[in-house]
Design brief:
The chain is an alpha/beta fold and 407 residues long. 42% of the residues lie in helices and 16% in strands. It has an 11-stranded mixed sheet with strand order 4-3-5-15-14-6-7-13-10-12-11, sandwiched between helices. Strands 1-2 form a two-stranded antiparallel ribbon. Strands 8-9 form a two-stranded antiparallel ribbon. The structure holds NADP nicotinamide-adenine-dinucleotide phosphate.
């Protein structure tokens, strides 16, 4: 192990080569980012030290984006930052402010698109003791695979009254025979076969690796037939093409297997997006993995986070074929910036996902276990304290210390 660490590399089959002293870049983030990052890095370092007795250690290097990126380089998303993530294969980040009217629609979306981090992976599972609006939150145990590069998030839109909209309106009327109100803004929703199939394939691969029973394609294909409907169609196709021996459709489950899933197979089913919101409330234990286009994924992951206790505990990862960036689901919560107040659980759990991604499963397990114990002892930040009777309300940094004590 060196002081400066060793870079993670990619093998030709896409798997990682992880040294015992990997160099991992981090972006502290804006708003509450520095508070939750400071808490997270202490927990990650302590968990690795205690689990592996000093034989493994991460060498962190800071890279910049968002407000700090702008201060240091004049750019909200410096090229060096993107290059550093590519070079080091794995990175972790705090939330970033979306600069209003400064060229970027969202720095976070730009990172995902420019690094082609096509799968946004958001596990949602209940931690005992966390206040939840559900009667049986323990039945919620799902992972959302949200497509990260297409859909309306591709950011192709034009404002009302612009020359671009004028041209589009003329083209649509004269060439397509479609009349749209003159005072409209217009957005484009691209959903490709390539983007859909690789996302669904990664969801199915994950289900097989984890021994999970089903992948549900969540879509609004009854209305948007050639985008959302096509997503569903391509999802079924890729299941058949790449995993034909390991998957069965829900229709086949009933037609051929009398509703009993054969051992080792993953059921591929689909649900219409609006209906999915009631399914995850009323029958959550019937869903393990949800694979869905970008906008549906945005909505359902926040809704699911609320079912198990809110955004303060919602981790996530953006994963591509060449690199991965781990981050919390929530944003910068600017009203709490610098107050050492918010829940760092979301980023700490994202860090645990990162350790799993490195193959350091025992370290990840220790972190989750220590968080469970901390919450069971009712030592929590404000967001959970306001709903738990007799809770000991602690600051963001104190919550991290309490987790470390329980490692
Ligand atoms: P937000 O930052 O996610 O915060 C919304 C609310 O969620 C907070 O006011 C707070 O609720 C709760 N919350 C969020 N994080 C929490 C935590 N760690 N602990 C406890 N509670 C937490 O959403 P926003 O205010 O709509 O967005 C603010 C900025 O973040 C925007 O510039 C947005 O573009 C950006 N953003 C960035 C990302 C990202 O970096 N990936 C993602 C989403 C949004 P209470 O007020 O009820 O306490």
């Amino acid at each position: 192990m060196t002081d400066k660490g060793t870079k993670i590399t990619l093998n030709s089959d896409g798997t990682l080569n992880v040294p015992n002293d990997p160099v991992i870049p981090f972006i502290g983030g804006d708003g509450i980012g520095p508070d939750i990052w400071a808490a997270t890095v202490r927990v990650l370092d302590a968990a690795i030290e205690r689990t592996y007795g000093g034989t493994k250690k991460i060498s962190w290097i800071e890279i910049f984006a968002g407000e700090k990126g702008f201060e240091h380089t004049g750019s909200w998303l410096p090229n060096e930052t993107l290059e550093a993530i590519k070079e080091h294969v794995v990175a972790i980040k705090g939330p970033l402010t979306t600069p209003v009217g400064k060229g970027f629609r969202s720095v976070n979306v730009a990172i995902r698109q420019q690094l082609d981090l096509y799968a946004c992976v958001r596990p949602v599972c209940y931690i005992k003791g966390v206040p939840s609006p559900m009667k049986h939150p323990e039945k919620v145990n799902m992972v959302v695979f949200r497509e990260n590069t297409e859909d309306v998030y591709a950011g192709i839109e034009w404002a009302k009254g612009t020359a671009e909209v004028e041209r589009l309106l003329t083209f649509l009327k004269s060439d397509m025979g479609i009349a749209i109100r003159k005072d409209s803004g217009i957005g484009i929703k691209p959903i490709s076969e390539t983007g859909s199939k690789r996302l669904v394939a990664s969801a199915i691969r994950y289900a097989l690796e984890q021994g999970l029973q089903s992948v549900t394609l969540m879509h609004k294909g009854n209305i948007m037939k050639f985008t959302e409907g096509a997503f569903k169609q391509w999802g079924y196709e890729v299941a058949e093409e790449m995993f034909g021996d390991q998957t069965i459709t829900e229709a086949a489950l009933w037609d051929q297997y009398n509703g009993e899933c054969p051992e080792g197979k993953v059921i591929i089913k689909d649900r219409i997006a609006d209906m999915m919101f009631q399914q995850v409330l009323l029958r959550p234990d019937e869903y393990q993995i949800i694979a869905t286009p970008n906008l549906n994924g945005d909505y359902i992951s926040d809704a699911l986070a609320a079912q198990v206790g809110g955004l303060g505990m919602a981790p996530g990862a953006n994963i591509g074929d060449k690199c991965a960036v781990f981050e919390a689901t929530h944003g910068t919560a600017p009203k709490y910036a610098g107050q050492d107040k918010v829940n760092p659980g979301s980023l700490i759990l994202s860090g645990a996902m990162m350790l799993d991604y490195l193959g350091w499963h025992e370290g990840a397990k220790q972190i989750r276990e220590a968080i469970r114990k901390t919450i069971a002892d009712r030592v929590v930040t404000y967001d959970l304290a306001r709903q738990i009777k007799g809770a000991k309300k602690v600051k963001c940094s104190e919550f991290a210390s309490a987790i470390i004590e329980r490692l």
